[in-house]
Amino acid sequence: MPSPEREILDFGFDAFNRGDFEAAVRYFHPGIVWRDPAEVPDASEHHGPDQVRALWDSFSEQWTGMRMDPVEFQEDGERTLVRVHFSGAGRESGAPMELEFFQVWTIRDLQARQVDSFMSRDLAERALHG
């Protein structure tokens, strides 16, 4: 049986992939900090569920069929590393895009408090055990 933290992650990814961003943030703490991968241009932090939803809304303006599928979980206390497969197609170009990235979720008291995203597994694993 999955841990409660894993159930929260499964619920959130499922809701995101249905396009139900409101449900996807159900277990987000009001003060959640969501960090973009430092390796991407214009990387920034998003504070609170409203800013995270706004980020996702901007993604959905650029992509159709957008999905973030978790393919691997590695739990370490209140932190969980998730290997994520992103897929979608450019809204204007129709060009398909797929990429893999990593997230370290901090879940405390059944609320997501922080999400740090990385393009590198090595950096994600350091954050997980950091």
Task: Explain the overall architecture.
It contains 4 helices and 6 strands; from the N terminus they run H-H-E-E-H-E-E-E-E-H. The mean pLDDT is 96. A hairpin with a 5-residue loop joins strand 4 and strand 5 (96-108). It starts with a helix and ends with a helix. It has a 6-stranded mixed beta sheet with strand order 2-1-6-5-4-3, sandwiched between helices. With 130 residues, the protein is an alpha+beta fold. Helices cover 33% and strands 45% of the residues.
Order of helices and strands: HHEEHEEEEH
Radius of gyration: 14 Å
Query: Which secondary-structure class do the elements indicate?
Result: alpha+beta
> What average pLDDT do the residues reach?
96
End-to-end span in angstroms? 27 Å
**How much strand content do the residues show?**
35-45%
For the biggest sheet, the summary is: 6 strands, mixed
